[in-house]
Design a protein that fits this description.
Layout lengths: L3 E5 L6 H10 L4 E5 L9 E4 L8 H5 L2 E6 L8 H14 L3 E5 L11 H10 L5 E6 L11 H5 L2 E4 L5 E2 L4 H12 L7 E5 L5 E2 H12 L4 E4 L2 H10 L4 H9 L2 H4 L9 H6 L6 H7 L1 H5 L1
Parallel strand pairs: 1-2, 1-4, 2-3, 4-5, 5-6, 6-9, 7-11
Antiparallel strand pairs: 8-10
Length: 279
């Protein structure tokens, strides 16, 4: 019987919460990761975007899937289209984690993946989260350790969204047909500049954290100096352009539409993750 839910990136920032949320609802979950190791309460299965031979075993016995591109990858179209095709061929419903704002231009690779999914004939829901609150205790953590977050965001604002709210939205979409055929823009409850975000983080961890607006070039230099591949560093710099343009300041009610709950604020995130931010 095909009633399992495949979660790609099951050990990642959003995926681990999706697995937990589905298990709490009594769903049977296949947790896909490169290692294929079982995650507490879920069956483990090996999955690699670059190895199509892993797709068949991953989708076996599955009728719904949470599909995303794990961080560190640049070629969204090249890596995700074959996954969408494999899901559609098996009539597996896809809840796809895209990116806020990609619907502004059909030439954007993530938007092209969305279009392929929309035309695939398989049931789907598209989730477009804004910048993750969780980036502060992961990607930007070294800056917090040094008391300064240096990013090419200028004074642009973002409605940071908690990965737990993205996951809760995904669980809702995976366990109901009410949202099928729709796209949702997931944001937090308010738009904040990085200066405002730094002040909130500073209060949560009890030590000064400042924000330093830097150029794309300086940002790329910091990343490559830390061992980040040049192409991924350039990609990360490029996605701050929408922040500087004010496009990521939008606030929507879509998390509440999906989950029935208001999204967590950055202040709530910082309080909940104070230990990780201080570590």
């Amino acid at each position: 019987m095909s009633n399992k839910i495949l979660v790609i990136g099951a050990t990642g920032t959003v995926g681990k919460h999706v697995v937990d949320g589905l298990l709490a609802k009594g769903e049977a979950v296949k947790a896909a990761s490169r290692s294929g190791k079982p995650v507490a309460g879920a069956e483990g299965v090996a999955f690699d975007y670059a190895k199509p031979e892993t797709f068949g075993p991953a989708f076996e016995g599955v009728d719904r899937a949470y599909v995303l591109l794990a961080s560190g990858h640049v070629d969204a179209k090249g890596l995700l289209l074959p996954v969408i095709e494999a899901a559609a061929a098996r009539k597996v419903k896809v809840v796809f984690q895209s990116v806020l704002g990609v619907d502004a231009d059909d030439s954007i690779p993530y938007r092209q993946v969305e279009i392929a999914l929309e035309k695939s004939g398989t049931p789907y829901v598209i989730l477009r989260p804004n910048w993750f609150s969780d980036n502060f205790h992961t990607f930007w953590k070294p800056g917090i350790d040094h008391g300064q977050i240096a990013l090419p965001a200028a004074d642009g604002k973002s409605s940071f969204v908690d990965a737990r709210d993205i996951a809760a939205s995904a669980v809702a979409a995976l366990t109901s047909s009410a949202f099928d055929g729709k796209a949702f823009n997931l944001t937090g409850p308010e738009a904040l500049s990085y200066t405002q975000a730094a002040a909130i983080l500073s209060q949560a961890i009890g030590k000064p954290v400042a924000y330093n607006a830097i150029t794309d070039e300086a940002f790329i230099g910091i990343l490559t100096g830390a061992g980040v591949p040049a192409d991924y560093a350039s990609f990360l710099a490029s996605i701050f352009y929408p922040v500087r343009q004010g496009w990521t300041a939008v606030v929507t009610g879509d998390v509440e539409t999906l989950t029935g709950k208001t999204p967590r604020s950055l202040k709530t995130y910082a309080a909940d993750y104070a230990a990780a931010l201080k570590a």
